[in-house]
Amino acid sequence: MSTPRTPDPGMLVVSVLSADWDAFWPEVGAEFKARFGPFEASEEFAFDQTDYYDEELGTPITRRLIAFDALRPLDALADIKLWTNAVERRYAVDGRRRFNLDPGFLTQQSLILATGKNFSHRVYLRDGIWADLTLMWQRKRWVDFPWTFPDYAGEAMKTRLTKLRLSYKNKLSKPQK
């Protein structure tokens, strides 16, 4: 019999996609800080693996990864996704989002993203939110799956996530404030 235990907290990571950062980022960045505390944002980098968001967000789309200083319980993922969905709606113009927010948790073992779309490999959390096992850490590298989105399967993303994973491991070894 297994004995239930609380897992280590995860590092909240949010992928932000947009073609017009100046139109929203200062305000949305401040909302993120007020809600989840200090974070580090990556530089903008190309999002060109698909044209899925082009019509809604415009072009050229770039991405930033934001990683929060405070580690969080993994069971907070559904609440976080519901909050990011509300932020997307609040800043929409004429029914079109200006940005896409994809929150997830990075742990020593994996990257789990939250989504509102069901699929065979996703686990239902609650309130219309599923958890997507996007990447797995194995043998000192990120391993993708047949369902991993191409942008997350690429080396540019995996390199960034490896750096965040090291930061996460360092945070785990220090007492949280």
TrEMBL record:
Pfam families: DUF4416
Name of this protein: GTP-binding protein
Lineage, broadest ranks: Bacteria, Pseudomonadati, Thermodesulfobacteriota, Desulfovibrionia, Desulfovibrionales
